Structure formats: structure tokens, C-alpha cells
């Protein structure tokens, strides 16, 4: 039996056109509540080309053997992602002292 978490995606299609394209994912936690981080791109409707890579962290609640979206946080740029990584690394280093 397939894992129901495999069914969640940030792919979004409208009128046969893939407007949000999932490039990669990382499952951060699993269980009754799951956290998944996605790497994706949005299509520019005017040019038809995909824009810069973005990151979204999403939480899902498992109900009736399916995951329902509950919350999300979009990282707006890789610069913001670097700041998040720096803060986390600093906190981890402090905890290891």
C-alpha cells in the first residue's frame, strides 16, 4: 500500500497548464501530523516560463488515511533561506556547548 504522504504535492494545474511545479521535497516529520518541505517554481503566466526556485514548508494532518493541509510557510527567497539556516546553525551550536 502506498504511503498517503506520497500523494501531497505543490504541483498546481489549471486548464491543463502546470502553474506550480514541484522540483523536490524533503519529509521533515511523519505521523498523525507531517511536515514536508518543497522546492518548487511558479510559472509566469505572461511569459509561460518558470520563475526562480522557491521553498514552502507545509504541515498536514492525517485523517482517514489521507493528509489534509493545515498550514504553510513560504520562504520568499534564497537570501531569506540563508538567514534561516544561519539562525538554526547558531542555535544548534549553542545547544551543543
Summarize model confidence as the mean pLDDT. 93
Strand content: over 45%
Kindly report the oligomeric state of this protein: single chain
Spatial strand arrangement across the major sheet: 1-2-3-4-5
Number of helices: 1
In the predicted model, the low-confidence regions spanning at least 5 consecutive residues are: none
Total strand segments: 5
Order of helices and strands: EEEEEH
Distance between the termini: 44 Å
Largest sheet: 5 strands, antiparallel
| Cα gyration radius (Å) | 16 Å
Structural category: alpha+beta
What general outline do the C-alpha atoms trace?
flat
Would you write up a description of this structure?
The protein is an alpha+beta fold. It contains 1 helix and 5 strands. It has one helix at 78-96; strands at residues 12-14, 17-29, 33-42, 54-63, 66-75. Strands 1-2-3-4-5 form a 5-stranded antiparallel beta sheet. A hairpin with a 2-residue loop joins strand 4 (54-63) and strand 5. The protein is flat and about 55 Å long. The N and C termini lie far apart (44 Å).
Key descriptive features of the protein:
97 residues; 20% helix; alpha+beta; 1 helix; single chain
Amino acid at each position: 500500500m502506498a504511503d498517503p504522504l506520497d500523494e501531497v504535492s505543490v504541483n498546481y494545474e489549471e486548464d491543463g497548464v502546470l502553474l506550480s511545479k514541484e522540483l523536490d521535497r524533503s519529509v521533515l516529520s511523519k505521523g498523525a501530523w507531517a511536515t514536508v518541505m518543497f522546492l518548487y517554481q511558479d510559472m509566469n503566466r505572461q511569459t509561460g516560463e518558470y520563475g526562480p526556485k522557491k521553498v514552502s514548508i507545509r504541515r498536514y494532518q492525517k485523517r482517514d488515511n489521507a493528509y489534509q493541509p493545515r498550514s504553510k510557510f513560504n520562504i520568499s527567497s534564497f537570501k531569506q533561506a540563508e538567514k534561516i539556516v544561519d539562525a538554526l546553525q547558531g542555535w544548534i551550536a549553542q545547544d551543543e556547548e
